[in-house]
Amino acid sequence: MDMKEAEQHVGYLLFEVSRLFRRRYEERSKSCGLTLQQARVIGHLSHHPDGLSQATLAQAIDSDPMTISGILDRLEKRALVKRVQDPADSRAKLVTITPEGRELFIHARSISRELFDQILGNLEDGHREILMESLKSIRNQLIDMSPENKESQK
């Protein structure tokens, strides 16, 4: 399959858009010192003020426990997150975002929004909404196809 043929496949285009977005985001986010994965972690934690277990957080950002552990170690060294005792289980820890982490996430989110505005700014009226609805539909279909959802539907 040549490049022209590849560009006719939605899977290829989705992969390329995602890859290029990550690259552009990483270039722009150097000013705040966060990788995209780190920004995703603190972003997810910002929506869960009581904290999340490391395993739940890893699953939420589609990462493995060892990778998330390294990310959390680096974020904790910068005082952007902290690990606290889980009040429901004395053997477990919860990860919470610190005020410094929340402030940095706001900056990282503005970088992401500016990038998306720039990327999507050339779309004709209404096309942005159509794109968003189409992507949501694809995402929901993929979620419905997951083994976890198929098991719960039995």
Automatic annotation (TrEMBL):
One Gene Ontology MF term: DNA-binding transcription factor activity
GO biological process, one term: response to stress
Pfam families named among the record's database cross-references: MarR_2
Keyword DNA-binding annotated: yes
Keyword terms, alphabetized: DNA-binding, Transcription, Transcription regulation
InterPro entries attached to this UniProt entry: HTH_MarR-typ, MarR/SlyA-like, WH-like_DNA-bd_sf, WH_DNA-bd_sf
Gene3D superfamilies, A to Z: Winged helix-like DNA-binding domain superfamily/Winged helix DNA-binding domain
Residues in HTH marR-type domain copies: 7-140
Name under which the protein is recorded: DNA-binding transcriptional regulator, MarR family
Organism, as annotated: Cohaesibacter marisflavi
